[in-house]
Every structure is written in structure tokens, then in C-alpha cells.
Design a protein that fits this description.
This protein is 39% helix and 20% strand. It has a six-stranded parallel β-sheet with strand order 2-1-3-4-5-11, with helices on both faces. Helix 2 packs parallel to helix 9 and helix 7 packs across helix 8. The longest helix has 17 residues.
Length: 336
């Protein structure tokens, strides 16, 4: 993953006029509260990316942190409220779109605290609380590129997609992936399946393997997952069938070396780090949406020494041309 410092995104977070700022916080000795998404720490993907942001803040900014593993239903709201009730924690994160309603409610209940939510489901008709930042990613753009890559690499003209919970967020991955595949190779067929309709669908590797084996049996030779821990089952199926898979959120090459074509990455770690840095600098401004996309390198795909030999130069060049068209606005990637 190309971890560039996203100065523009940081400026969007730090800038702002006429809105509440945290003025009286100490420069050092900060403690951050974070509640993980379904699957928790150790998912090798989305949650672990957020954890890397915490660890980077600890190393580079000297802050401390506490986190809570996810629980069902009201446990998320209770965990957020518990952190917000503590005088020593000025910033609380919710990691994942499932937190949207809970973190909105708690932010309104605790107007003197600050909150940030990764993958917050933004509703333009509903203004954000003035102490909450929504960290949003254009997953459809990165998914478009890995879809194009898969459709240019497939030997069977069939590729697959395994989603976790059926939801508007994961639909962005699916829709972008299918659009990229059809743009680069109109003859390519995309098999689509989901692990479930609740948050539990993000932590079921057995289901992920079952779905992936079915797609490989149906002719797919490359499968992209957007399913959290469930995706580890997709990788097991790839190893078993000697096929290829595409990781998500973090670089997942080391989960199945030799069987991971690439990973679609999101700078979740950087978004967490920059939010903490803004708190430390007394420049955190809530009530706004920060959007990370291909142009800012907030979304990308992995192309490095681990997979460069797998991807012909002509294919890489074709995918990079599509990147340029998206950034230039010549291609508008669908997301639903």
C-alpha cells in the first residue's frame, strides 16, 4: 500500500470556520477510546488497519488508548457511552458503518466530547452533530480498479465477489468491482454472493470458504472479498483450489502468499492517526465529512514486489489508465 501523507485530507479535517473546537486539552498524556467493528482486532483487515493508526499515534504522538471489542446490538452504544463518560478521554472512535446511529446518538448526548466514525453512513438530509467527524471512503473507486485487473487477468472470463453483510456500504465494493470488470472486459462474468444480512456475516470464515468454493467450481478463477474475517475463508478456498483471491482494506498478501493477486486498500490507519493528531493540536473540527478517494490516495490497490511478477506490464498499464480517467472525471464509478 502506498502510505502517502494525505496533507489535503488533513487540512480538510483541521480547517473549518465557526464550529466548536477542543481548546483546553493537554498537549501530552491524551487517551483515546476506540470501539472496534465486528470481527475485532486480529481480523487482518479493516479493524487491524484502525489499530495501526492507534499504534502510530502512540509511537509518534505519545498518546495512550483503550479499545473495546465489538458486542451485539446495544453493546456498541454502551461502549461508546462508557468512554464518553470518562474525563480523561476527549476523542472516541467507532469503527464501521454499523456504528452510525449509535455514535450519532452518543455524540449528541455528550456535546463536550469529540467523536469520529470510520465508514459512517452519511445521510445528506441529516446534519452531523457538531462534535462528530464522518470518515468516508470511495471504496467503489478502488474496487473498480481491482475489478478491471481481475477481468484482464482471468483465464476463464469468470470472476467472483464475496460480500459480508448485505448493506449499502458493501454494495459499493460489489458495484464498483463489477463496473470495473465490465469496463475492461465486457465479456467477463461476475459471480456475486453475500455471507448474510447481519453483522455476524463479517466473522464467518467457514461461510466465506463455502461461498468461494462454489464460485471457483462455477468457473471463477479470481475472487474479491469485502467481508472482514469471513474473507479468510475465501483465502483458504483459493489455496485449496490453487486459484487467486483479492484482499480488502489492508494489504492481505501474507494471509495466503502466492494466492493473493492484490488487495484494495483504504487508509483507515491514516484517518485514525490524523484525527488523533488534530485533537492533540487542538484543531479538531466536527460536523463535517472527510472523504478519501483515489485522487488523494486514500483508496488504492497493491502493486509491489510481492505481486508484480503476477501482473503483466500491459495489464498494469491498462489499470493505471483507468485510474487516470477516474481521477480526471472521465469515468464516474457507480456505487449502488
Amino acid at each position: 500500500m502506498k502510505h502517502l501523507v494525505i496533507f489535503l485530507a488533513a487540512l480538510l479535517l483541521l480547517a473549518g470556520c465557526g464550529q466548536k473546537k477542543t481548546e483546553d486539552l493537554p498537549k501530552k498524556g491524551l487517551k483515546i477510546g476506540l470501539v472496534f467493528d465486528v470481527g475485532g482486532r486480529g481480523d487482518k483487515s479493516f479493524n487491524d488497519a484502525a489499530y495501526r493508526g492507534l499504534e502510530k499515534a502512540k509511537r509518534e504522538l505519545g498518546v495512550d488508548y483503550e479499545y473495546v471489542e465489538p458486542g451485539p446490538g446495544a453493546d456498541r452504544e454502551a461502549a461508546l457511552r462508557q468512554f464518553a463518560s470518562r474525563a480523561d478521554i476527549p476523542l472516541i472512535f467507532g469503527i464501521g458503518f454499523i456504528f452510525t446511529d449509535d455514535i450519532t446518538n452518543v455524540a449528541r448526548e455528550f456535546p463536550d466530547k469529540n467523536f469520529a466514525c470510520v465508514d459512517y453512513s452519511v445521510d445528506p438530509a441529516k446534519p452531523l452533530p457538531r462534535n462528530l467527524v464522518a470518515l468516508e471512503f470511495k471504496e467503489e473507486e478502488g474496487s473498480f480498479l481491482v475489478g478491471a485487473l481481475a477481468s484482464l487477468m482471468t483465464k476463464t472470463n469468470v470472476i467472483g465477489f464475496v460480500g459480508g453483510m448485505q448493506s449499502p456500504l458493501i454494495k459499493k465494493f460489489e458495484t464498483g468491482y463489477a463496473a470495473g470488470a465490465k469496463t475492461a472486459n465486457p465479456a467477463c462474468k461476475v459471480l456475486i454472493a453475500y455471507a448474510g444480512i447481519t453483522g455476524e456475516a463479517f466473522k464467518n470464515p467457514g461461510k466465506g470458504k463455502e461461498i468461494a468454493l462454489g464460485q471457483y467450481a462455477g468457473g471463477a478463477d479470481i475472487i474479491y472479498h469485502a467481508s472482514g474475517v469471513t474473507g479468510l475463508g475465501v483465502f483458504e478456498a483459493a489455496r485449496e483450489r490453487h486459484a487467486l483471491a483479492i484482499g480488502v482494506d489492508s494489504d492481505q498478501y501474507h494471509e495466503a502468499p502466492g494466492f493473493i493477486l492484490t488487495s484494495m486498500t483504504k487508509i483507515v490507519d491514516t484517518s485514525v492517526f490524523e484525527s488523533i493528531k488534530a485533537i492533540q493540536n487542538n484543531t479538531f473540527v466536527g460536523g463535517k465529512v472527510m472523504t478519501f478517494d483515489l485522487k488523494s490516495r486514500g483508496i488504492d490497490y497493491v502493486y509491489d514486489d510481492n505481486n508484480r511478477a503476477l501482473i503483466p506490464d500491459s495489464v498494469h498499464s491498462a489499470v493505471e489508465r483507468l485510474r487516470g480517467k477516474i481521477i480526471a472525471g472521465e469515468i464516474v464509478v457507480p456505487y449502488q
